[in-house]
Design goal:
The complex is a heterodimer of chains A (about 230) and B (about 280). Chain A is about 65% helix and about 0% strand. Chain A contains 14 helices and no strands. Chain A is elongated. Chain B has a single domain, classed as TIM Barrel. Classes of the chains: A mainly alpha (about 230), B alpha/beta (about 280). At the A-B interface, helix 3 and helix 5 of A face helix 2 and helix 4 of B.
């Protein structure tokens, strides 16, 4: 069972920040495009891929880049619900390049999709693109991914060196089983004489009973080393 | 010498080709969507192919210092298979993408009613997306096919300067240049057009609105035919400026009409990946 419940915070509303960075031409294009999508959902097919060259792709805030935020504006303008919305979003992801796919994944928490977009998260987690994996493990995955898959996702991040502070929901969803998996991983690494990424230690320490005597010893040594390095 | 190959199917070529092309002066290429030598049987295999033309192949080219753009279309041959036709309904999604600089290859193969329909519809898409069109002329019955293609282009309402008719020869070049369209020539080891014949055509018709390509693919072909044509031009007395016009400035001008030809020399990066995958061997 997950320690879960608290719903992870939603991403910031992209509109206000976007308005302040887009020039007049880009802002007009985006406003008109959102209106076209609201009037006719099929318009999104031509408009969604064109966003990067129309609006730019600089970083907007900690969560969004400009193109991701502008694409979120188009997705949230779709006048669809439920399965119809999921089908359109899925097709945009299917035919999207990596930047378009990141935008879809980052926008999931703003769309009322229930579990219908989980296949997109799962497909991403099967791949090896760390920017996509990071985008997939936001508030939507934290709220909807089943426990076993959430744990595997965290472990995959450790293996592909995605810092765990970029994974949403770890504070509420880390459970004893995840701590056990990470402790076993740490044990394996130490036995091989390799480093253990520091960001797994808080999760492991929150469930002290998963740490066996041998690992405890190794971790204590490691911690002593770190304290020495820091002093 | 800088060379832009305006028509080459790099998906079918090796990394050795990329190295040899860079050494010969090739710095940019356009890869038109075409068939694979054996027919596709469903729309889904087109989508994976288009994704490759927009994803893996530009990544691969950049590792060798070459910029890669593409053109997207349902090709004439496969327009005859009803199983492939749904591709036409999804082209909007791909024609809107950043590295797509034209609609193509479209045109005639056997001049069937199905090909008529696909050609007319895709010329309309070029107009709607404000893109140039790369139009293939048929291998069989070429002169009649070229005349008919020019009629369809005229009827479509697309501006002739936005259209290149490709795979031309001595018998078809005149009518194409007279129409206001661009004239494309594919230099092949044995068929279509040779570099010496190409030089004669340039002498007779001039260097304006002419594109020279290798059209290299999975068949007998040579990705260095652009450079060999440039050398043949120099040997025949053309100057460096004329070579630069035909092999660089002309393709830049033609595809530049898309507004999406952002030329920027790539810096090969050993560590770069596409979707986490790389062209390195062994190691992570």
């Amino acid at each position: 069972m997950a320690v879960t419940t608290a719903s992870p915070s939603a991403p910031p509303d992209p509109h206000p920040a976007l308005i302040s960075v887009l020039d007049d031409t880009a802002r007009t294009w985006l406003d008109e495009s959102a209106a076209k999508v609201a009037a006719d959902p099929a318009a999104v097919r031509r408009l969604f891929p064109a966003v990067r060259r129309r609006c730019g792709h600089a970083r907007l805030d900690a969560y969004w880049t400009v193109d991701e935020a502008a694409r979120a504006v188009l997705l949230t303008a779709l006048p669809l619900r439920g399965q119809a919305l999921a089908d359109d979003v899925t097709r945009l992801h299917r035919h999207g390049d990596p930047a378009e796919q990141r935008a879809v994944l980052r926008t999931l928490p703003l769309l009322d999709l229930g579990d219908l977009a989980l296949p997109l998260v799962r497909e991403t987690l099967r791949g090896n693109d760390t920017t996509l994996i990071e985008a997939a493990l936001g508030p939507y995955a934290a709220a909807h991914l089943p426990d076993a898959e959430y744990r595997q996702a965290v472990l995959k991040c450790v293996f592909c060196e995605i810092p765990l502070d970029r994974v949403t929901g770890l504070d509420t969803r880390a459970d004893r089983e995840l701590a056990r998996m990470l402790a076993d991983f740490a044990h394996e690494r130490l036995a091989a004489g390799r480093d253990v990424p520091q960001d797994i230690l808080p999760v492991v320490r929150a469930f002290p009973d998963v740490i066996g005597a041998e690992l405890k010893h190794a971790l204590t040594d490691r911690l002593t080393d770190i304290l020495k390095e820091e002093s | 010498m800088r060379i832009f190959d305006p028509h080459i199917h790099m998906t079918s070529r090796t990394t050795d080709d990329y190295e040899a092309m860079y050494a010969a002066g090739v710095r940019a290429v356009v890869e038109p969507a075409f068939w694979l030598g054996q027919p596709r049987t469903s729309p889904e295999s087109f989508y994976d192919y288009f994704d490759g033309l927009l994803g893996w192949e530009p990544y691969r080219a950049a590792q060798f210092g070459i910029q890669h753009f593409c053109t997207i279309a349902l090709n004439p041959k496969e327009a005859n298979d009803p199983r492939c036709l749904p591709v036409l309904d999804e082209l909007d999604r791909y024609l809107a993408k950043d590295r797509v600089v034209a609609v193509g290859e479209i045109g005639y193969d056997s001049m069937t009613p199905e090909e008529d329909e696909a050609l007319a519809r895709q010329l309309q898409l070029a107009i709607e997306h404000e893109l140039p069109a790369l139009v293939h002329t048929p291998h069989r019955d070429k002169a009649a096919g070229t005349r008919r293609t020019l009629d369809v282009v005229r009827e479509s309402g697309i501006a002739p300067e936005l259209v290149v008719l490709d795979h031309l020869n001595e018998l078809t070049v005149g009518m194409v240049l007279d129409s206001g369209c661009w004239a494309g020539f594919s230099i092949y080891p044995k068929t279509k057009m040779s570099e010496d014949r190409m030089v004669e055509i340039l002498k007779e018709h001039g260097t304006e609105r002419v594109l020279v390509n290798s059209a290299a693919d999975w068949g007998r072909s040579d990705p260095l035919k652009t450079r060999k044509t440039a050398d043949a031009m120099l040997a025949a007395g053309f100057g460096d400026d004329a070579v630069d016009e035909v092999l660089w400035r002309n393709p830049v001008a033609f595809y530049g009409q898309s507004g999406r030809l952002e030329l920027e020399e790539p810096k090969p990066d050993e560590e770069a990946t596409f979707r986490g995958n790389s062209i390195r061997r062994g190691g992570a």
